[in-house]
Design brief:
4 helices, Translation Initiation Factor IF3, 222 residues, four-stranded mixed β-sheet, alpha/beta
């Protein structure tokens, strides 16, 4: 419970709480969502205090303003969790710039960088910048960019194939989805069962008694 709160107004991401609420009359909603009617803030604070809860302003523009009885600390914690989840859900697009003459060492570094972005769930945009006569050989650069995409096909799916845009060739990739449309983890294909060996054939009824062959004992000559 927030005992009283500061006398200053709330910050833009907060609500007026308890003694910060100074309207002459307010409409009050109980902790379970029930309508408690219109009353003074002092009366509403007494009700909230008796339950060990807070009086929180939720609709100041209403006439009269609407306040709710709740655990304000818990309310802020849950709001913070929702904001963090929404922030994590936003996908960023990371841009990796290339040149036709980028050497193999730098190219490996950029591919490693792209893999790192994809592992974090970000999309990656490859931009190959062309200058002067390089624009006369775009076929070579398309082939080079396609080779880069092929090198990360185990972790990425192509969202936009290489496309010429002005003085650049652009391609976009995104992480390979690990879950199906329903949010469930994609199950691996079941392994093939090993064949069960056939049982040995039983001896037929007309087979005679089993003959046991023994090696003759050799006698040593004296």
């Amino acid at each position: 419970m927030n005992r009283g709160g500061s006398s200053r107004g709330p910050s833009p991401d907060m609500h007026r709480v308890n003694h910060q609420i100074r309207f002459p009359q307010i409409r009050v909603i109980g902790v379970d969502g029930e309508q408690l009617g219109i009353m003074s803030p002092d009366e509403a604070r007494d009700i909230a205090g008796n339950e060990g809860l807070d009086l929180v302003e939720v609709a100041p523009q209403a006439r009269p303003p609407v306040c709710r009885i709740m655990d304000y600390g818990k309310f802020r914690y849950e709001a913070s969790k929702r904001a963090s989840a929404q922030k994590a859900a936003r996908v960023e697009v990371k841009t990796i710039t290339l040149r036709p003459k980028t050497d193999s060492h730098d190219l490996e570094t950029k591919i490693k960088q792209a893999r790192g972005f994809l592992a974090k769930g970000d999309r990656v945009k490859f931009v190959m910048r062309l200058r002067g006569r390089e624009r006369a050989h775009t076929g070579m650069w398309f082939e080079k960019l396609n080779g880069i995409l092929a090198s990360i096909e185990d972790v990425a799916t192509i969202a936009q194939r290489p496309t010429e845009e002005g003085r650049t060739i652009v391609a976009n990739v995104e992480p390979i989805a690990q879950r199906d449309g329903g949010g469930q983890k994609v199950q691996e294909a079941p392994q093939a069962e090993q064949p069960v060996p056939a049982p040995a054939a039983a001896p037929s009824a007309d087979t005679g008694p089993e003959v046991v062959h023994t090696n003759p004992i050799s006698r040593s000559r004296s």
